[in-house]
Here is the input.
Amino acid sequence: MNYEKLMLRAISHANQYKYTAKPNPVVGCIIVKGKEIISEGAHEKFGCNHAEINAINSAKLNLGKSFNSFEELTLICTLEPCNHTGKTGPCTEAIISSGIRNVVIGALDPNPLVSGKGIKKLKKNGINVISGICAELVEEQNKFFFFKNTYKRPFITAKIASSLDGKSHLLDDQKTWITCKESREDVQKLRASVDVILTGGNTVVNDNPLMNARVNFPINQPKKILLSSKTNFNFDAPFFKNANYEIITERSIKNVVNSFGSTDITSILVEAGPKLINSFLNEDYVDKLIIYESTSKLGPNGVDWFKGDNAVEKLGFKLESSYKIKSDTKKIYIK
Ligand SMILES: NC(=O)c1ccc[n+]([C@@H]2O[C@H](COP(=O)([O-])OP(=O)(O)OC[C@H]3O[C@@H](n4cnc5c(N)ncnc54)[C@H](OP(=O)(O)O)[C@@H]3O)[C@@H](O)[C@H]2O)c1
Here is the structure.
C-alpha cells in the first residue's frame, strides 16, 4: 500500500495546530481500514493529548460500526510515537493496548535518547512498523524541534526594522516607528510562531513595548525574556503586566543560549536594538536574520544598525528572499 498520500494528509492536519502545540512538535495521526479513513487526530495543544491518543479515542467511537476489531486497522503517524511518560502517558502503550497491528511512521524522534525506542517497543509487541514515509517534510514542518534536538540550543531568529539609510532609532532614544502598519502586523505572526521573544534593558525602558503576539487566532503566547542588569524597571509597564517573563542578568550570550538546552524552548526571536542584536550576531548565535526596511531615512540623528558596508554579508549571511510588504521590503537572510 502507498502510504504517502495519507502521510501528507496527516502532515497537513497537524499543521493547523502549529501555534498552539509549540514548543512541542506538531503531530498528525490517521487510522485507516484498508483505504477507508476511520479517524484522525492531532496534537492540538501543548500539555494535552498526543495525536495518536486523539485518533485512537475517536476510532473507538466507530468500533462495531465501520470496523469490528482494532486488529483490522493501520495507524499512520507523522512522528515516532513516544515511549516515555511526559505530560501524558506513552503513546506506544496506548497503541499496543488498542490492539492495532500495523503502524506507519513519518520521521523518527530526533532526540537521541528516545529515537528508535518507540519503534523498538512496538515491534517487540508484535506490531508491524514501517518508517521514513515523507520524513523530510515532517522534519521541515517541525524545524525548530529538530534543530533544538540536533544542536542542543533553540533556533534563533533576529528581527530588525531599518530605515533606508540603515538606522535603528534616533539618538535621543525617542520611540520611532520605522516600518508600515502591514510590516508590524507581519511581525505579530512571526512572534506567534516562536517560543520566546528576547530583548534588552534599553529597549524595554525606551520603547515601553508590550512585546507579545497580537494575532486573531489561538496561540500559546511566547515567553518574554529580558537580558538586563537593571533593577529599577516599572513592573506595572505593559511588558511585565500579567506576562510570563524572566529577567536574565548573565552577559555572556553563549551562556544564555546554552542555558535553554535543558528546557523545552526550541525557538527564540531576538527583538532588540543594535547593541544586543550585534552581540548575538558577532557571537554567531543568529540562524536567521529578518530585516524590515522602510523607504524613509532617519538621517544623521539616527543610530546605525551595523558598522561599515555589507556587514550582514561579511558575517556569512546570504539573502534567502526579499519581497515587498506595502511600502517596506522584507529581507530574509540565512547562513
Ligand atoms: N528598529 C528596531 O527594530 C528596534 C528594535 C528594538 C529596539 N530598538 C531601539 O533600540 C534602542 C535600544 O538599543 P540598545 O541596543 O541600546 O538596547 P537593547 O535592545 O536594550 O540591548 C542592549 C541591552 O541589552 C542588555 N544586554 C545584556 N547582555 C548583553 C550583551 N551581551 N550585549 C549587549 N547588550 C546586552 C543590556 O541591558 P542593561 O543595560 O539593562 O543591562 C544592554 O544595555 C531603543 O531605544 C529602541 O528604540 C530598535
About this structure: The radius of gyration is 23 Å.
